[in-house]
Amino acid sequence: MANFPSNLRQKLEQRTQANAQRTLLITDGLVDFSSNDYLGFAKIGAIEAHAQKILGESPFLNGGTGSRLLTGNHPLYDKLEQYLSSHYQVPSALVFNSGYDANVGFFSAVPQRGDIVFYDELVHASIRDGIKMGNAQSVKFKHNDVEDLQKKLVRLKRTSDFVEIYVVTETVFSMDGDSPNLKQLAELCKQNSAHFVVDEAHAIGGYKKGLVFELGLKDQLFAQIITFSKALGGHGAAILGGTELKDYLVNFARSFIYSTALPPHSIATTMASYYYLDSQAGNNAITSLQQNIAHFISVLKEKGLNDYFMPSTSPIQLMIKPGNEKVKKVARFLNKEGFDVRAILSPTVPKGNERIRFSIHSFNTFEQLDNLLQLVKEINNG
Q1: What is the DSSP string of 99-123?
Q2: Which of 64, 144, 256, 308 measures 20 to 30 Å from 367, CA to CA?
Q3: Helix or strand or coil: residue 342?
């Protein structure tokens, strides 16, 4: 192979010196407190069996064969998109290969030159990357701070004349586990004629149809990004919105136009996961997840650990442990004790806010939760 560029080697060395170099891990046999498979759907045989049945009733293909605009638009895509439109009670849905592709495709193509995008300072990298790839201006507002956003919208109206305004946030933040006041944000967008866009990646499934649907705000959104790779246990994503938005994305979203389509098996698995989610077994999984979250929060309080954790009522619970070496040491200790947890390092999160991310699942037991938090207490009292 050709020599590796010295400037790239230097960047890797800087990461190593900061104890922040990322590596690929394989964990086997540990109790899962790390994955986004909140409902355990990725391991449910009934979903796979149903997916195979769906595939058996459809034209056979192992792969995507091409982009959806060429040969990859398998008939299952239309069935899934029609199902999503009905399920979420929206005019249309467009499936993308991943949540990253959906966000990059939307934010690089929809906001135009002369438009402006206001985004929560902690939104996912895919949203930020999409904004950077587009031609619109952008302004970040303080995390979950409606008042800060309002001030910036007022300042914008006094000083500029933008064609269109977009506001984007997440309904559950993946590295903080918290949620914004969506009702206040929706009202603020309405008052300022702004297009409200939300990413529901970590809310879909765990909150059945997501927080937007639960709060009755779907009609106040311009677009809603959902993923199938978290609580649904599959792969892919979709953008929900109006029919004109779908037509526009099909014509201008480069991550959609120039990507080979997902294979039919991925689409069939997503369909099977939704059917399972709507069954009694799916409802039971959601109930178990909510019970486990409530138990985790209760034990935190009993053991006096609240001060170490960020407030959250979602499946994502975060313990702050400043310093990359310190947080990695905690993760290694818990791994050796049989628990699959991961350290979240800077620069993924701000320096001094490094953390352990605990993902709660429907299949975790109270005993596992208790044993884990007992170890956490020993760590923090040691």
Answers
A1: HHHHHHHHHHHSSPTT-EEEEETT-
A2: 308
A3: strand
